[in-house]
Structure formats: structure tokens, C-alpha cells
Design brief:
The structure holds three protein chains of three kinds. By secondary structure, chain B is an alpha+beta fold. In chain B, 58% of the residues lie in helices and 14% in strands. Chain B contains 13 helices and ten strands. Chain C starts with 9 loop residues before the first helix and ends with a helix. The N terminus of chain C is likely disordered. Classes of the chains: A mainly alpha, B alpha+beta, C alpha/beta.
Chain lengths: 166, 510, 187
């Protein structure tokens, strides 16, 4: 009986060993789905075609680059690392936005600056308009009758055939 | 020059990508739009040259400006539709520099349509309107130069043409002459300027202009920065969709919000209170939609807010339209339909504008659907295997190669679609290889419903096609509303443009 | 009393208006300058024969490094190619044929520069065509940019004095074309 027990133990040990090694090998050759590749390729541009994202570019060269991404994903590289590799190899123009270094910060600063600046201008303009209104009222007296319902007033005018153009 | 010894049997034929009906109409529409803006531009320049101080130029060119805007809008949408149908990336707008160059005059042109309305009604913002229309036309010229000169790295890149230097001279002349004229006559333009509250219609229009101009400036920066970067540092960079979406997305949402609030504002008379009184009912109704969206499981707050703003716009506009019609029919004892007809035809501009805004809101709905809720997958399947996406099951049944036509070889896949147990239909994504041009064109299989589009592309196949073929599938929710909204917008514009017979009142002054 | 749009009186307002126009003027001038410079730049397309070639270095696929300034004793043929470029196929065979002829003399060095490519297909290409002269990737396409290439393949002949002796746009069709190209360095 103990002979069989030893044999079983050996067989179990062997199968465990086989299982572990295949697990390790599988890690290196983990099948990477097209979707995973495209998720990263979508954020890159084809290095040679003008302005075509890497996931839709149909050329052989782009096929090669997508395969390269697949290889790196299966090696465990992160999306950031893959994108960094591509921009180092092929230039910054393969990234879909300029990297945040050097002169490029301009493009990140300007949009909020534009909006805030515009908002300030508008508010200043409106305040000036309100001041003019008050001055006008002060000079001419309060002519505007307080309108209780602007909407009904407008409908009235519509019905009378005035205010033809909205 | 000498003649070719042997003339080819057939020419190369048109680039296969361009053989789409939209391509017949898209360029003329765009150019009608671009060129149409020269009319208000010319009148504005004439006003400056003559030193006039009136609003006549705006009244005289109002319909021309609106028509130009209409054609430009149609041109842009047709370009999107073509991209969606033919290019095979399941999208409609790539923020490509040439696309953005065509969008910029549209942005300032739309701002101009709105602020010139204020000048017509209240006689204010004269400086601004002249500046805006000059800017719009200059953008048309500069945009053309950027596109045609080859300065932009783009899929639309025309090969570098010889017009570069002469066009540059023309552009310089237009920009500098406009600027000089504007400066010279600036003080001649004389207006008073009163605003009652932050919630009056004038204020709203100012905010509207602010947002359009802000979006335009962001686009300008995005288009010019790669050129600037290469000139100054020698580094080539790409400014792509992530930049534009993040920078302009919130701004477009604010525009939709404004679109909802403005119909209820009044010239010089609204306050926060009066606006609130008018808006609370449709606002409550519109909240139904974000609630439903959240209930369906969405956790993306950007999407929920965007959807709410779209429906707020639609609810407010319909509410206002409906109220006017109802009151009119009550007062005049006529049917709702008669009242609707009469109100609409009496005030074509206002109700035309309402319809345009509803159309734009519907376009916004389509865009939100595809931007926030798109799902996609790419998979290689063997014959009779299936792809699952968002509840749909697509089964690869067959691939047939057909080379009976002289100029091309077509590979056509047959895909059957089911949802749960229900059979939905068939799709036939194809890939056509044109011998002469040595170019492939993918024709997606497309199924559109009001709820979503199912979009499938044949990417590749193994030599023995039953061994495996690769498909890319997109599910684009709500995208059909982008096209429906455009039609509504066109109808609204045509209503606003519709000529009116001047009714002679019985009590004529004799 | 209706006020001017710009401010209380004409005179203080003028200052603001002038300021705005100066800024606008600068913006417009800047835009025109950018467009003009780009136009100018794009006209100077290729390198010209006789031009001095700035120093560059390349690391081959097998790890050896080559620097132009270290190679002054030889005439260099730089061939820029890619594995995905269809006309590079034939050319590689022609170049290899001539290389086997001239390699031993030590006068010449052929350097293959792999443009915007991936390593696996590139190495496969090299093996398939039996190429033995050094080849390496052009990292960041910096060297190709320096050579102002319009496409691939292109070849450049650099003399012992470090100046450009000849340019070949497109592939060499026959091996005699390659030999003729090499003679252009003799003067």
C-alpha cells in the first residue's frame, strides 16, 4: 500500500510541477485581445500617415506597430510605458496631445485663461451696462413700468400683430 | 510638354474613398457657406469706409448671413456623415486640423448671427458686430490658406499647391486692411449701452458670444500650436481629440444650457426672479431624463449633466412654444393647429429659431450618445462563431469574394444579428480593393435605429476565410439623432428665411 | 445722456481702444509671420550637394555604434529604408551586391538607417535580403529629419571631408546605379 501512496505522491508532485511551469510560461505568452491593443493604439497616431489614429490605420506598417504594442502588453508593460516608448522611438507627434514639458505647457494654460479672461470682460461690460441704465433712469426718471409677467406681455404683443420678428 | 505615347485605356478614376453621394454635395455646401459670408463682410467694410453709424448693413444682409450659415452647417454635417459611412472608424469628427479650420468660421458666424440680432433690436454692440463679421471672413481666408498650403498635418491634406505665396499676400492684405479700417473708424461707431440685469436677453447673448469666441480661440490655439512648436523648437507635436474634447466639451454644454434659458428671457426686462418663475416647470420636467439615465446605471456625471442640459433646452423651448400657441388659441377661440400655424407664420424668425435650437439640441443628444456611451470591440472569429456586444450577438456566417466587376474585388461578409432570442437582421460589411488606385475601401455594415447604431467593419481575413475573419464592431447609442437634428435645424432655418408678404393694413395712410 | 460705448468720455477711452488695437496688431502680425516663415521654410526642400553634414551617430541592431566624425577615413553611403517600403526590397539586394565588392577595400562604408520601423520586421528584412552592412534604427527619426527626406528609400553619399557628395531619391534600380553613385565622391 505505501508503495502506491508514494507513487501517488510522486504523480501529484509532478502534476503540480507541470501546472506551475505552465502557469509561468503562460504569463509570458498571455493572449492579448485586440481590444486591449486598440485601447492603447487609440491614443497614439500612426508615425507616418498624416493624422490617422493607430487603431484604425489599415497599412502594414501600422499592423506591425500594433503587434509591437501587443508584445509589450503581454510582457506586462503599462499603457504609460508603451506610449513613452513610442514617443521616444518615433517622436512626440505620435502622442495625441503634446507631453507636458517645455513649451507645451502653453497649450494647457491657454484654454482656462481664455475662458476666465472672457468672463471677466463680459462681467465688466454688463456692469457698465447696468451703470448706464441707472444713469439713464436717474436722468429721465423711472420710465419702465415694472413688468409682472414678461411672457404674457410678449404674447399680448404677438396677438396684436406687433413685434413681428421675435 | 509632349504627348504621351500610349494613352491609358481607363483613367485612374476618382479616389475610391470619395465615391459617396455625400461627397457630391459636401464641398459645394461648404464653399457656399464660406463664400456666402463675403456679403455681410462687404457691407460691413462699406459701412466702415463710408464712416456710417447705422445698422442698415445688418438688416440688408440678414438673410444672406443666415443662408451662408445654413450652407456651412450642412457642409460640416455632410462631412461628418461621410466620415461615419466611409472611413470605418465608427466616428463622425476627428478634430483634424482641416476640420477645425472649417469649424472656426462657423463658430464666429453663429456668434455673429446672435449678436447682430441685438444690434437690430437695440442698436448696440456695433463695434463688436463689425469686428465679428470681419473675423469670420478672415477665418475663411486664413483657413483656406492653412488647408491648401500644406501647413497642416491632416488626413485631408491636399498636396502642396502653388497658390501658397499669392494666397499669403492676399491674406495679409485682407487682415491688415480690415484692421486698419476698423481702427480708423472705431470712434465713428457711437452707441449707448444699457443692460438691466444679468438675466436679460442682452446679457445672455453676451454670454453666448463669450462661449462661442472662447471655443473658437481654443480651436485656433489647437490648430496653430503644432506649427508654432515646429517653428520655434523644431519639435513636431500633435494636438488631438483629447485636448479639444476636454477644453471645449464643458463650453458646449454651457451653450446648450443657455439655449434652454434664453427663450424665456426678454429684452431688458428679465430678472433672476422672473426667469426662475418661467423656467421652473420645464426644468422639473427635464429632470426626468437624468433620473432615468441614472436609473439605467450610468455613473458618468459628465454624461448625466450633458443629457440633462439637452433635455432642458428641448423642454423649455417646447414649453414656451406650446404656451404661446395655447394662449393664442384660447384668446382667439381657434383650434390649436390654427393657432400654431398662425403664430409660426407671424413670427417666422422667433419660431424658426426655436426649431433650429431644438434641432441643435437633438444633434447634441446624438453626440452625447456616441461620445459617452459608445462601446466597441475587435475580435477574430471562425465561421459560425459569434461576437457579443452590449446585448447583441453577431454571428459570422460567411465571406464571399467577388471579382466580377472590372475595377475592383469585393470581399463581403455575412453577419446575422440577434438580441436575446429575437432575430434582428443581417449586416454585410465589405472590403473593396480597387486595382487602379491600389487602394482598399471598407464599407461598414450599418444598422440604425432611434436607440442605437450597430456598426461592423471587416478588418481582415485569413486565406481560408472560414478559419477566421477579424471584425471591429461599434455600438453607437443615439447617434441617429445627430442626423435627425440636422434636418430639424435645416427646417427651422428655412422657416426663418421664408419671405413674408407685407400685409397692407386696411387703415392705410392716404 | 447716452454714453459712449467705451467709457465716460472720448479721451480716456481712446487709450483703451489703442491698447486693444496694438494687441490685435501684434497678434495678426504674429500669425502672418508664422505663415510666412512656414512658406519660406517649405520652399527649401532638400539638402544641397556640397553642404556640410552635421555629426550624427547611430547604433546598429547588433549594438555597435557608428559616429560620422569617427569615420572620416571612409566615404559613407547612408541608405534610409523601411521594412514596410515596397521599393526597398529590390534596392537592398543591389546594395548588398555592391557592398560585397567594395567591403574589403575599406574605402567605403554602407550604413543602413531604418526609418520609423519596428525591430522584428526590420531584422526579418535584413535576414531575408542577406544584408551584411551595418543597419540601425533611426531613433526619433532625428537623422532622417536632418537629411530632410521626402520619403523612403533615399540614399546620401558623404565624402571624406564630411560634405554631401550626392543624393539618390528613390530606390537604386540596378547595381550599376549604385556603383555610379559611389563614383560621385571622387574629386
Amino acid at each position: 500500500m505505501s508503495r502506491y501512496r508514494n507513487l501517488i505522491a510522486l504523480l501529484l508532485g509532478l502534476s503540480l510541477l507541470v501546472f506551475l511551469t505552465t502557469a509561468v510560461i503562460a504569463q509570458d505568452e498571455r493572449p492579448v485581445s485586440d481590444d486591449e491593443v486598440n485601447e492603447i493604439a487609440r491614443e497614439l497616431y500612426c508615425p507616418i500617415c498624416e493624422n490617422v489614429p493607430l487603431d484604425v490605420c489599415p497599412t502594414q506598417a501600422c499592423e506591425d506597430w500594433r503587434e509591437l504594442i501587443r508584445e509589450y502588453i503581454s510582457k506586462g508593460w503599462s499603457a504609460e510605458e508603451i506610449k513613452d516608448y513610442f514617443s521616444a522611438q518615433y517622436g512626440w507627434n505620435v502622442l495625441s496631445v503634446p507631453p507636458r514639458t517645455g513649451l507645451n505647457w502653453i497649450i494647457y494654460i491657454i484654454p482656462p485663461f481664455i475662458f476666465v479672461g472672457g468672463l471677466v470682460i463680459i462681467i465688466v461690460l454688463i456692469r457698465k451696462g447696468k451703470r448706464n441704465q441707472q444713469l439713464l433712469n436717474a436722468n429721465l426718471g423711472e420710465l419702465d413700468v415694472p413688468v409682472t409677467d414678461v411672457f404674457l406681455d410678449r404674447v399680448d404683443r404677438d396677438l396684436k400683430g406687433e413685434d413681428q420678428d421675435g | 510638354m509632349s504627348t504621351i505615347q500610349a494613352s491609358p485605356d481607363y483613367g485612374m478614376g476618382m479616389n475610391p474613398l470619395l465615391r459617396h453621394p455625400g461627397m457630391v454635395v459636401h464641398p459645394p455646401m461648404l464653399y457656399l457657406g464660406f463664400v456666402g459670408f463675403i456679403i455681410p463682410f462687404a457691407y460691413a467694410i462699406a459701412t466702415l469706409i463710408k464712416g456710417w453709424n447705422d445698422d442698415e448693413w445688418i438688416r440688408a444682409t440678414r438673410k444672406w448671413s443666415l443662408s451662408a450659415w445654413l450652407f456651412l452647417s450642412i457642409g460640416l454635417v455632410l462631412g461628418s456623415r461621410w466620415a461615419y459611412d466611409v472611413l470605418g472608424w465608427g466616428g463622425y469628427w476627428g478634430w483634424d486640423p482641416v476640420e477645425v479650420s472649417a469649424l472656426m468660421p462657423w463658430l464666429t458666424g453663429t456668434a455673429f448671427l446672435h449678436s447682430s440680432l441685438i444690434q437690430e433690436k437695440r442698436g448696440v454692440f456695433k463695434h463688436w458686430n463689425i469686428t465679428l463679421i470681419i473675423l469670420t471672413f478672415c477665418l475663411v481666408i486664413v483657413g483656406t490658406f492653412l488647408t491648401r498650403s500644406g501647413m497642416l498635418s491632416s488626413v485631408h491634406a491636399f498636396s502642396q499647391s502653388a497658390i501658397g505665396p499669392s494666397f499669403f499676400v492676399f491674406t495679409t492684405f485682407i487682415l491688415i486692411a480690415s484692421l486698419v479700417l476698423l481702427g480708423y473708424r472705431w470712434s465713428r461707431l457711437n452707441t449707448g449701452f444699457q443692460i438691466k440685469s444679468y438675466f436679460s436677453r442682452e446679457s445672455f447673448f453676451l454670454f453666448n458670444n463669450l462661449i462661442f469666441v472662447a471655443i473658437f480661440l481654443i480651436c485656433m490655439v489647437g490648430v496653430l500650436f503644432p506649427i508654432f512648436s515646429e517653428l520655434v523648437t523644431g519639435q513636431q507635436v500633435t494636438v488631438g481629440p483629447p485636448f479639444y474634447k476636454k477644453a471645449t466639451g464643458p463650453l458646449f454644454a454651457m451653450l446648450l444650457l443657455l439655449m434652454g434659458a434664453v427663450p424665456l428671457s426678454a429684452w431688458s426686462a428679465s430678472t433672476g426672479k422672473s426667469l426662475g418663475k418661467n423656467i421652473w416647470k420645464p426644468a422639473i420636467i427635464s429632470l426626468v431624463f437624468p433620473v432615468v439615465t441614472l436609473a439605467l446605471g450610468t455613473r458618468d456625471w459628465g454624461a448625466v449633466i450633458a443629457l440633462w442640459v439637452v433635455f432642458l433646452s428641448i423642454c423649455v423651448t417646447l414649453y414656451d412654444y406650446g404656451r404661446s400657441v395655447k394662449i393664442n388659441s384660447d384668446t382667439n377661440q381657434c383650434s390649436i393647429w390654427k393657432s400654431f400655424w398662425r403664430m409660426t407664420s407671424r413670427n417666422r424668425r422667433r419660431y424658426g429659431a426655436y426649431i433650429i435650437h431644438i434641432g441643435v439640441a437633438l444633434m447634441g443628444l446624438g453626440i452625447i450618445g456616441i461620445e459617452f456611451f459608445q462601446s466597441q470591440t475587435q475580435v477574430t472569429v471562425k465561421k459560425n462563431e459569434s461576437i457579443e456586444i452590449s446585448g447583441y450577438t453577431l454571428t459570422y456566417n460567411d465571406l464571399k469574394i467577388d471579382d466580377t466587376l472590372e475595377d475592383r474585388e469585393t470581399a463581403r461578409a455575412e453577419i446575422s444579428i440577434t438580441k436575446g432570442d429575437r432575430e434582428i437582421g443581417w449586416l454585410y460589411p465589405a472590403r473593396e480593393y480597387y486595382y487602379m488606385a491600389q487602394q482598399s475601401v471598407t464599407t461598414p455594415g450599418l444598422r440604425s435605429t432611434l436607440i442605437d447604431d450597430l456598426y461592423i467593419i471587416l478588418v481582415d481575413w485569413l486565406p481560408v476565410s472560414s478559419e477566421g475573419a477579424t471584425f471591429k464592431v461599434y455600438r453607437n447609442p443615439l447617434v441617429i439623432w445627430l442626423w435627425i437634428g440636422t434636418v430639424v435645424m435645416v427646417i427651422g432655418t428655412m422657416l426663418a428665411l421664408w419671405p413674408k408678404h407685407q400685409r397692407v393694413k386696411p387703415e392705410a395712410n392716404l | 445722456m447716452v454714453e459712449n460705448e467705451n467709457s465716460a468720455g472720448a479721451n480716456p477711452g481712446i487709450g483703451k481702444v489703442v491698447a486693444v488695437f496694438v494687441i490685435l496688431g501684434i497678434v495678426v502680425a504674429g500669425l502672418l509671420f508664422m505663415m510666412g516663415s512656414w512658406l519660406k521654410r517649405s520652399e527649401v526642400k532638400m539638402l544641397s550637394v556640397g553642404q556640410s553634414i552635421p555629426d550624427f551617430s547611430m547604433t546598429s541592431f547588433s549594438g555597435e555604434s557608428y559616429r560620422l566624425s569617427d569615420l572620416k577615413s571612409k566615404i559613407i553611403l547612408v541608405n534610409i529604408w523601411s521594412s514596410w517600403c515596397t521599393s526597398c526590397d529590390e534596392e537592398a539586394l543591389m546594395l548588398q551586391e555592391v557592398w560585397t565588392e567594395v567591403e574589403d577595400s575599406g574605402y567605403y562604408l554602407f550604413l543602413g538607417l531604418d526609418y520609423v520601423d519596428t525591430e522584428k520586421p526590420a531584422l526579418a528584412f535584413i535576414q531575408e535580403h542577406g544584408v551584411t552592412y551595418p543597419n540601425g534604427p533611426d531613433i526619433g527619426s532625428n537623422i532622417s529629419k536632418m537629411f530632410k527626406i521626402q520619403g523612403v528609400p533615399e540614399s546620401f553619399l558623404i565624402g571624406k571631408d564630411g560634405t554631401l557628395k550626392a543624393i539618390q531619391i528613390g530606390a537604386f534600380i540596378l547595381s550599376v546605379d549604385v556603383r555610379e553613385f559611389l563614383t560621385l565622391a571622387k574629386d
